[in-house]
Design brief:
CATH architecture of the largest domain: 2-Layer Sandwich
CATH class of the largest domain: Alpha Beta
CATH topology of the largest domain: SHC Adaptor Protein
Strand order of the largest sheet: 4-3-2-1-5
Number of helices: 7
CATH superfamily of the largest domain: SH2 domain
Order of helices and strands: HHHEEEEHHEHH
Structural class: alpha+beta
Oligomer: single chain
Largest sheet: 5 strands, mixed
Number of strands: 5
Strand content: 5-15%
Radius of gyration: 18 Å
Length: 196
């Protein structure tokens, strides 16, 4: 099931019997998924309906930690992260449940995994965690096992210079409204609030 099909399926669920009206719960879920997908599409590293073998082929020559997000081919999941590991490319499913995204994992580990409002927040969390561990001065912290090593996005095409600048500004500050910039530029910076 692709993300578009999943969004369409949410559209088609009608628990309220009045024609043309969905339940508030369905509307909220649809809004959450739509907002998360809009954020994801703006990243430049969302590849849509790319198949697992195609993703693996693209990542084969990439450096370790290079990743992309694509639609999942498994019908119970929306999305998958494909990432180049030391052993080669691998794929990790992203689960959506109760309005939150998290990595799919063993039943015993799932309750310990953080959940996020969007896929971009999820990816950003692991990228920032990897930066902290990579820059750690203490070998014990550097050698700690990381379930998901994400360091560099694999873009569908080279993003604009403006987009790269926006990412770097967000690495320095989260307080965009306090910057001495024109309102239009602040709006542009606020449209994409991530560091990856």
């Amino acid at each position: 099931m692709t993300c578009q099909e999943a969004t369409d399926n949410v559209d088609s669920i009608q628990t309220d019997q009045r024609p043309g009206r969905g339940s508030p719960t369905v509307d909220i879920e649809q809004d959450r998924i739509s907002a998360a997908m809009a954020d994801l599409r703006s990243t430049g590293w969302y590849w849509g309906a790319l198949k697992a073998n195609e993703a693996n082929e693209k990542l084969q020559e990439a450096s370790e930690g290079t990743f992309l997000v694509r639609d999942s081919s498994h019908r119970d999941y929306f999305l998958t992260i494909s990432v180049k590991t030391a052993l080669g490319p691998t794929n990790l499913r992203i689960e959506y449940r109760d309005g939150k995204f998290r990595l799919d994992s063993l039943i015993l580990v799932k309750p310990k995994l953080q959940q996020f409002n969007s896929v971009v927040h999820l990816v950003e969390h692991y990228v920032l965690l990897c930066r902290v561990i990579q820059n750690a001065q203490r070998p014990a912290l550097r050698n700690r096992g990381v379930q998901l090593w994400l360091t560099k996005p694999f873009y569908t095409e080279t993003p604009s210079l403006q987009h790269f600048c926006r990412i770097n500004i967000h690495k320095v500050t989260r307080d965009i409204q306090e910057l001495p910039l024109p309102t239009k530029l602040k709006k542009y910076l606020s449209e994409y609030k991530y560091q990856v």
